[in-house]
Fold this sequence. Notes:
de novo design (two linked rop proteins), alpha+beta, 22% strand, 8 strands, three-stranded antiparallel β-sheet, 6 helices, single chain, CATH 2.40.50.140, 2 domains
Amino acid sequence: MTGRIHKTKGIVLRSVKYGETSLVVTVFTELFGIQSYLVNGVRTATKKGSGKANLFQPAAILDLVVYHNELKNLNRISEFKWSVLYQHIFSDVKKNAVALFLVELLTKCLKQPESNSDLFHFSEDAFLHLDQSEDAVTANMPLFFALHLPVFFGFRITDNYSEKNPFLNLWEGKFEAQKPDHPGFLEGKEAEITSQLLKVLLPEELETIRLHHEFRRSLMISYENYYALHLQDFGSLRSLPVLREILS
């Protein structure tokens, strides 16, 4: 049984060569959450198949027609085409590095194949803004995405920063009056900027937050630690060292 056929949008997270001509792709779909699909014949050099594999680059947003059977771990894609043709993400080194970071962070958070259309639209919007963004927005996008993504997974940071609550306790996910008795906290400018970033609702607002790349890098390490504290088996982000190099 192949399952029923559905139309859905999807964000490609990864693709792996399978056999001589096929791919197994992991896609975050609007309808079904994270799914794995077999795509036949896209790596052949025939006129029909040539160039099709490049649609399955990480971060690509596609319109898909898929077979869906909940009992199967691997379903099939019947039809696919670009939903969005990026202008810059696949050609601009900085934007591509940021896109791959967003993809990796998303992949690490998406454990179960369940529908989450709000998360899908937040993620799609981040990629669309990244594609068109100026340098300041591009550089701040990883921070913005890393701080707002936990909202969808139940470990958001409460933005109660003030002069009276200047310490961000990463274990508790909130700002506190007293310095915590463990190393997992932010203070000073790092706490203040985190609060500013939490207030940003639209990526274009990131234009106004000007940060030095070393400061940004230090914040990103703290946010990675925050994920490791709150998500089991999170490990470390392989795209982060690359991102640091390219954005410095």
